[in-house]
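Forwarding these from the shared drive since the link keeps breaking.
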Amino acid sequence: MGQAKQKRRLREERQGLSRAMSQARFNVFAIGTRMSPTRYMSEEISYWSDQDERILGLVFRDTTDDDYGWILLARDRLGRFRSVDLAVSLRSPEYATVGLRQRIAKAVEDGDFDALGHQDDETNYATNLLDVPPGTNPDKLHPHFRVLLDEPSRAPARAVLKEIGPWLTPSDPHFVSEFQFKQFDQRLWEIYLWSALREMGFDITQPEAPDFLCRAPGIEFTAEATTVTASTSGALMNHPDPKTPEEMRAFLADYMPMKFGSSLTSKLNKKNAAGESYWERGETAGKPFVLAIADFHKSGGVGDREGGSMPYTQSAIFPYLYGRRVDWEMQDSTLVVRAVPVENFVYNGKIVPAGFFDLPGAENVSAVLFSNAGTLAKFDRMGVSAGFEAPGHRYFRVGLRLDPDPNAAHGRPFSEEIVADRCAEGWSDELQLFHNPKAKYPLRKEVFTGITQHFFEGGQHVSYSSGEPVLSSRTLIMKIEPQ
């Protein structure tokens, strides 16, 4: 055999040591890897790994020089995939792909993946969200965490959280313990926010307070997470539990805006021992400040994380924030929308003024970020899309999407099966940002491309959305029993 044929045969054999992978799967493994400037400097082309996914690779186009390159990733001592080698200024994507696959083959042949991934800057320990302390009484764990940990159907969420954990650097030393024992929903909401903000291209640090300091070229802002929880005392303690359409309208008109208000005003008025509000603390001072809220006040029960109040309470947040409710009617087959002033919300003798953004001090809140999808089901769907589905199970999503028809008064029903490599769901898809028209430090619309954004301009509610975002949904898991 000639030398050229031998080289070709060897190259083909080494090609067998690597394989292509989907973007969704690569994104789970590399959720914390990309730095914010990369989205402006490069275009990702293809994704690769060795056969056992011990190392990953990425082929990209340099958008400045219009040439190509590749990056090799390996796990560091904390288990995070990070860059360990790269090549740039290559003439074509095909040439870059061949080079990357040869480099993966060399790494496999060398075999020392620990040494390859060592970065010499790792901390002493990684955040492990799923590692329960030895000797723990299972009955002491939060029931939703037990579902996550024990149910075979939750394998996709476990796979995703396993990759996210090592990237988290919470200042609160009790974060993992609270996630496992007492405050599962609240901590899951923070993990979801971190994932969505990372997907949107922000570099994130986690100071003591607020929860997140986010940076990207030309922008810095901070965000504090909060949740709506069940009331255990006071006027809102007895839940209306609406059943009929009339009861639901009354519930969303008064009770639910007051619930959102309780959580938001608590954060607005909170000060530390030095008397500082969230937007006045350390390196976070003088930057736009965002409050991020989700509704967990009424759960659907263990194992049914989206069966509670979360899917249907979002319409109550706009009236509370802006002191306006949105009314509509059809006139000559045309949808006419009006913002009608609201003065107060009243329930069980309690009166709460409308208009959070009108409150003293609220000018320091640049916007309120909301999602009704920061649940365990979201982590399952992201995991299934990346190929981590549990054997013997199928995953379905049903709900309402935004109808692009400008005269549509309601969302468009949809149903779909979540299948690996066929679903393009993102972490931030359901996020909604409500901008404060009186903000001291307003946020530009361009900072949050791809999510739904709301403004109150000229006495009207103005919204911007990308595509057909999901308005509300439920995720159904079907277990396939053998015949």
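-- next protein --
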Amino acid sequence: MRCFCFLSLLAVVITSACVQMKPSHLTRDNALITRQPLIPSFINSSGKSLLFKATMDIKKHHLTGLLMVKPMGLKVYRVVFASEIGITYFDLDISPDSSRVISCFGPLNKKILTVNFITDFRILTGVDTITTCKLYHQNTTQTRVYSLRAGNYKIWRSYTPKGDTLLSQSAKSTLFDQVIISCLHYHHGFPAIIHLNNPVTGMTLSLKRLD
């Protein structure tokens, strides 16, 4: 039984390692890089709490509720996901210097899941300071792609050719916290839908903004 569990875990690791985080068919662009297009500004320039209708799927489990991202200071956020009847699935404190799980619903309170929660919202809110940056263009679509190092994370951010709209991000600090974030259907500068996929755990989180 122990051997079977080890082989199952190994299979998950090998499968997740094959996930392509880096966009394909890139050509390096040595043009001058400005800071403006590097920040997912729809989150951290709003200055107010953001409320989403949220759907989380982990394997066969399906959870729905409301998710709030609340600014608590400069690049400091409180992230709370709760059910319609008031069960708090997770409550996170995210800041440039640290991340903390304030509370987590029992079945979700597993290390590999809480690590994913932290990574998902550190990347989505952009709290980590960018230390290195390279610019590329995707040959087929002319999408503008930034290769970044921010905190412990290696990040790929894909923008429209003009660099004014964030399309997607992929990031990881270890093999186990990989995340791919897609931003869809922009309206007044904000994506109507944000889709987060964690390949290792199979967890997906879909956010639909509520006005």
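Confidence is low (pLDDT under 50) at residues 1-16. The helical segments are 2-17, 41-44, 111-125.

- D.
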